[in-house]
Structure formats: structure tokens, C-alpha cells
Amino acid sequence: MKSKKITKFDLVDSVYLKTKYEKKIVQTVLESLLENIKSSLKDGSTIELRGFGTFELRLRKGRSRARNPKTGEQLSVAPHYIAAFRSGQELKNALWELPVPAQKS
Q1: CA 82/CA 41 separation, integer angstroms
Q2: For residues 53 and 91, is the Cβ–Cβ distance under 8 A?
Q3: Among 59, 61, 86, 102, which residue carries the largest CB count within 10 Å?
Q4: What is the DSSP string of 26-66?
Q5: Model-level pTM?
Q6: According to the model, what pLDDT value does residue 105 have?
Q7: Contact 58, 67 (CB under 8 A)
Q8: Local structure of residue 83 (DSSP, 8 states)
Q9: Could you report the per-residue pLDDT of 31-41, keeping only the tens digit for each?
Q10: How far apart are CA 40 and CA 60, in angstroms?
């Protein structure tokens, strides 16, 4: 399966074609949704979209010794939060059914 990167523009265009709402309205709704997800995570909330998945915060442990892979510089990393996504059962089932390409020996 060849993967294609989908952008916000592609999402707006897809919703526009399916609903025939003005692109400006679709873009505003999408931007608002993403902004709400971001601000909810910043407030420490978990966002559950039934059938799709859950966005949540996860605490990454800090490290006293880390290395910048680009420069090789030694540095320390403080504990910090990251956004994590767990797929819902419906999404898992839909992805489970995707055909898997044959592996070459």
C-alpha cells in the first residue's frame, strides 16, 4: 500500500465535495475543531471521539543525559507532556481489514 500525505487543505476539499458547504465554512469548522482539541489537551483534558479514538496527555520522563542527533551535543531533557492518540475499536477494525502486501523472501 502506498501512503499519501493528507493535508488540512485535502480534508477541507474532501468535506466540501461531500457536503457542498462553502470551503470557508468547512475550513473554519476544521480549524475550530483542531483548536478545541489543542486547548483541551493544554488544560489537561482527554478528548474521546467514539468510534475514532482518544487524544490524551502522556508524561515523558526526563533524561539527564541525552544527545542531539543532528549535532551530537550532550544535553539534558526535562520531564514533559506529549499528545498521544489511541485508536478506537471501529478504527482498529477498519484498519485490521486492510490488505497486507506479500513479503519478499
Answers
A1: 9
A2: yes
A3: 86
A4: HHHHHHHHHHHHHHHHHTT--EEETTTEEEEEEEEPPEEEE
A5: 0.77
A6: 66
A7: no
A8: E
A9: 999 999 999 99
A10: 19
Give yes or no for a contact between 49 and 88, defined as CB atoms under 8 angstroms apart: yes
**Mutual angle of helices 23-42 and 8-19, in 10-degree steps:** 130
Say which residue the cell 551530537 belongs to.
Answer: 72
Are 51 and 88 a contacting pair, CB within 8 Å?
Answer: yes
Which residue carries 490488505 as its cell? Answer: 99
Taken as a whole, the chain contains a residue count of 105
d(CA 103, CA 98): 15
Please name the residue that has the C-alpha cell 496527555.
57
Instruction: Return mean pLDDT, the chain.
Output: 92
Q: What is the largest CA-CA distance in the chain?
A: 53
**β-sheet with 53-60: strand ranges across:** 47-49, 53-60, 80-87
Read off the pLDDT band of 1 (50, 70, 90): low
